[in-house]
């Protein structure tokens, strides 16, 4: 399964470049995002060594939550820590901004953004959402938006994003319309149809839809959303701004800013792109709408453009923003680089999902083309998962008694359903996972079924 060859550093002739009106910095003119291997592709034993710090007693089927970071990248991060601690003034004046610029340039090329100043680094996708929703709140406060103007979001939206919309948009006078999506889901068209219906509700009585919040890969349940189609519909329906919450996307599914066409797009780099926490990128398409975006922490860089503001928010650890070149070297040790990793993970998670569904007599929550590196697998109905609390208790039980880390999702039965699958496991696959991890999960559930276990037996 393993593949790999060491790639060169990002390189090219340096020239001077201005970003968002900030000070002149040096950056590579031409990036080399992949290169032919100078040695054989990475081996299984080398992958195992890169992730030897993982707890060997735990089957980690939940890369989607916190991601992972290989030893070579951790080492690079430690070197940045030491460079800072040995001489902070030199680090600040001579290394920090150029290092961040190089990392932003790599991400700009990877996601096919038009301009470097469209890419900013923030701690995580939740911070990115705050930046976008803060601007919406200001628009209400300044009278650009009217009380009762609408924001559309998927009801699958991540909990923290929902809370952020509540804190900034609803509190400022906006109305929220949720897109109620089916699960299990069998086609992109089901999602597109429900999205159009929600837009119709949002535009009823002459209301204006000011914002659409669209997930690229939903968290729970996990589904790849036809984001390009939904953004296109928003343009047709004159939705003012579109924010794509793509916390899982980079390193997990295809990401192309020019193809997607959103105003704002945010993705974590620690989940599927092997960075340490905490780093995400926020893409803001060049337009008048992006001129009034600001980091919620106001620093000396306020007013110099979002990318510059985000590059300094006071004394803190900036090493996650500086190790992107080391991550690029790591992923290019695999055949096909990050594209090869995405395909490898997708194919493996589908294979393991189908194996588990067959073993338990259940089904997948989505067809394979609607999953990326995560997939939903139905759990046996006999486990008695009847509410969200049962799902949490079962997850804890699997962790504490079987050494398995996997999220569990509760699906409310539809009217008339009896004995249906109401519990789903969200399994991930990352390069460190082995088939035995999934066999361990299969066997644990089979044992619980044999023992006539139900969630009702677990105490709160």
UniProtKB/TrEMBL annotation:
Domain of life the protein comes from: Eukaryota
Gene3D superfamilies documented for this protein: Type I PLP-dependent aspartate aminotransferase-like (Major domain)
Region (Disordered): 1-40
Any coiled-coil regions, as ranges: none
InterPro entries reported in the protein's UniProt record: Aminotrans_V_dom, PyrdxlP-dep_Trfase, PyrdxlP-dep_Trfase_major
Residue ranges constituting the Aminotransferase class V domain according to the UniProt record: 69-287
Keywords: Pyridoxal phosphate
Name recorded for this polypeptide: Aminotransferase class V domain-containing protein
């Amino acid at each position: 399964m393993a593949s790999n060859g060491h790639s060169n550093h990002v390189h090219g002739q340096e020239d001077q470049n201005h970003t968002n009106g900030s000070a002149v910095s040096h950056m590579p003119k031409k990036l080399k995002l992949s290169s032919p291997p100078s040695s054989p592709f990475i081996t299984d034993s080398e992958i195992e060594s890169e992730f030897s710090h993982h707890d060997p007693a735990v089957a980690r089927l939940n890369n989607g939550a916190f991601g992972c970071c290989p030893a070579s990248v951790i080492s690079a991060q430690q070197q940045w820590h030491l460079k800072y601690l040995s001489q902070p003034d030199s680090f600040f004046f001579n290394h920090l901004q150029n290092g961040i610029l190089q990392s932003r340039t790599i991400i700009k090329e990877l996601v096919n953004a038009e301009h470097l100043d469209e890419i900013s680094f923030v701690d995580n996708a939740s911070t990115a959402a705050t930046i976008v929703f803060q601007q919406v709140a200001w628009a209400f406060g300044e009278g650009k938006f009217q009380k009762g103007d609408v924001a559309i979001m998927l009801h699958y939206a991540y909990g923290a994003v929902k809370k952020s919309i509540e804190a900034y948009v609803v509190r400022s006078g906006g109305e929220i319309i949720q897109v109620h999506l089916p699960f299990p889901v069998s086609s992109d068209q089901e999602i597109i149809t429900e999205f159009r219906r929600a837009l119709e509700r949002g535009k009823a009585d002459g209301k204006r839809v000011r914002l659409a919040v669209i997930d690229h890969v939903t968290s729970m349940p996990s589904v790849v959303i036809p984001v390009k189609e939904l953004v296109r519909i928003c343009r047709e329906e004159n939705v003012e701004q579109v924010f794509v919450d793509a916390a899982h996307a980079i390193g997990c599914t295809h990401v192309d800013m020019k193809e997607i066409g959103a105003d704002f797009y945010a993705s974590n780099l620690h989940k599927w792109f092997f960075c340490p926490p905490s780093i995400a990128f926020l893409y803001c398409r060049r337009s008048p709408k992006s001129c009034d975006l600001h980091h919620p922490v106001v620093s000396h860089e306020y007013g110099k453009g979002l990318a510059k503001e985000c590059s300094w928010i006071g004394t803190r650890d900036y090493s996650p923003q500086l190790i992107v070149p080391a991550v690029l070297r790591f992923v290019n040790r695999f055949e096909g680089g990050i594209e090869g990793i995405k395909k490898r993970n997708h194919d493996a998670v589908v294979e393991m999902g189908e194996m588990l569904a067959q073993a338990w007599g259940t089904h997948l929550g989505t067809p394979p083309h609607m999953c990326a590196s995560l997939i939903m697998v139905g759990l046996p109905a006999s486990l008695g998962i009847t509410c969200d609390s049962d799902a949490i208790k079962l997850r804890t039980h699997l962790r504490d008694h079987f050494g398995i880390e996997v999220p569990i999702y509760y699906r409310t039965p539809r009217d008339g359903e009896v004995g249906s699958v109401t519990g789903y496991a969200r399994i991930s696959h990352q390069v460190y996972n082995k088939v035995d991890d999934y066999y361990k999960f299969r066997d644990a559930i089979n044992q619980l079924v044999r023992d006539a276990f139900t969630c009702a037996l677990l105490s709160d």
